[in-house]
């Protein structure tokens, strides 16, 4: 009993360690996962500002053009980033885009469903696919890379087979006429802030068509979805309990489980998230194009993961940010459109994409070492 | 009859034909540190998991504060105030001190359906709690990965205490630490006990256990070799009981043989 005594000096000397450096505010900022992507985005804009500043790239029409491309990618990149922070991959995003597209088009065109019902049907299928992916990964403990790779083939194959079986072809056109007066479709198909562009046009500040209406008519729906998703997911990650659980599930599955985080449920919900994001992407595209194509979304899963990685997500999970993925998508979208305004052959875009990702991974790895290194 | 906070009476656990634990008995009072000593394979891990509610004992009873109980899950054990700090500490090194401290049990604020993680309050509590044990977290949003092994161990213990542990089960808290860090952790364990917690300290390091323990239970091949109060046993006797004695003697003889040949 002798060792148990209240007189023990409890003030230990961790904090008197003279080897500790003061950490500056700048270092804290440098530790944010999205910093690399933010810096990259700024560099990209400076580059195109110099190289293509006097072309049409930074006109209202040009800006909306590359924002639209960025936003489409961003919608799935944000969901992919959330899942990666949670410690898993989803390679079936691209196939899900194609699948969701025909889930809207076939019932609407061939079975006479109202468009809104087809859209709800597509989203229900997305929840099912996401749930299936998630439960498979959680229950079997298999790497999500393999499980969702299998789903990539299954979904793409089923999309092609079912479409040909029902329609006899691989494309389903004729959706545009159904959009009007539909109570749901407008959420995915309406340009917003048209009055701003009309006003800007009337002031002769932006380019006009020959009939006097502005060339850029409004903010495309993808951009609104993209911004909304970026805000909501960032809020979830930073400010909610669920957000903490996502980091914990990806950072250390067992540890999180031991302190009561429902890791399985968190992961399943994130898989549902990627499938639903793919369906948002698909709905916007299908309604914009007026047709569904079985090959839509091919390779999109890899672009989404690339954008998430450029945005600071670690491939091992537990670290990253949604806003970073948004910047990652902005970089890719801007370059893929901007390259048309330069003298560079567009064939080089993929080279850029790969190089960018490589740099990002090396940079992220370095950051991770910085963050986790012991004193 | 002394007033025990928790009693584990004649606990046995079998895995098929393997007898992992047989008739292990441990009784703890408030403020007591019981050291559970044993070499690798002695059954320490099985015993920890039984205490933590991961395994259900096949024989024996668990009595917490006078009431006989059965743990169906780790959560049951936790609800009864028996908190286990595993070797991996259940800390995520990429996450901040605060986020780790409250992982799975985040304080919330705001109206229903819009409840948010009250990060300011969490930061304050985490910094305060770490400050009490003398760890100055300059910034509670710094990643746990930047902390030393001793600090992490203290964080995990501090978290268990904050969330209402009455009995702390510590699995090899000093095994990965240097001499200085280990002494800091041991000091903290003594302090925790002095505030009325019962501590089960599992270790194979007698030199860490002996200075802080009130009593010692030695485990060998799944069986308890008995529980001894500190005044009744010496450090050397404990060391030799942990199966080490005999074998160390043998080793010494063998080394002598080798030297002679050279």
Helix and strand topology:
The complex is a heterodimer of chains A (375) and B (262).
Chain A: H1 25-30, H2 35-52, H3 60-85, H4 93-110, H5 115-140, H6 144-167, E1 171-172, H7 176-179, H8 186-189, H9 194-202, H10 221-239, H11 241-251, H12 253-258, H13 263-289, E2 292-293, H14 300-310, H15 322-338, H16 349-372
Antiparallel strand pairs in A: 1-2
Helix pairs in contact in A: 2-15, 3-10, 3-11, 3-13, 3-14, 3-15, 4-5, 4-6, 4-13, 5-6, 5-13, 10-11, 11-13, 14-15, 14-16
Chain B: E1 6-15, E2 18-28, E3 33-38, H1 44-51, E4 59-64, E5 67-69, H2 74-79, E6 82-85, H3 97-101, E7 108-109, E8 116-117, H4 119-132, H5 149-162, E9 167-171, H6 179-194, E10 198-203, H7 206-212, E11 215-220, E12 223-229, H8 235-261
Parallel strand pairs in B: 3-10, 3-11, 6-9, 9-10
Antiparallel strand pairs in B: 1-2, 1-4, 4-5, 7-8, 11-12
Helix pairs in contact in B: 5-6
Can you walk me through this structure?
The complex is a heterodimer of chains A (375) and B (262). Chain A is mainly α. Helices cover 67% and strands 1% of the residues of chain A. Chain A has one domain: ABC transporter involved in vitamin B12 uptake, BtuC (Orthogonal Bundle), CATH 1.10.3470. In chain A, strands 1-2 form a two-stranded antiparallel ribbon. The longest helix of chain A has 27 residues, at 263-289. Mean pLDDT of chain A is 87; it is low at 1-20. In chain B, α5 runs parallel beside α6 (179-194). Chain B starts with 5 loop residues before the first strand and ends with a helix. Chain B has 262 residues and is an alpha/beta fold. Chain B folds into 2 domains: 6-92 and 161-261, Rossmann fold (3-Layer(aba) Sandwich), CATH 3.40.50; 95-142, no CATH class. Chain B is built from 8 helices and 12 strands. In chain B, strands 6-9-10-3-11-12 form a 6-stranded mixed beta sheet, sandwiched between helices. The model of chain B has no long low-confidence stretch (mean pLDDT 85). Chain B is globular. In chain B, β9 (167-171), α6 (179-194) and β10 form a beta-alpha-beta unit. Chains A and B meet through α11, α12 and α16 of A and α2, β8, α5 and α6 of B.
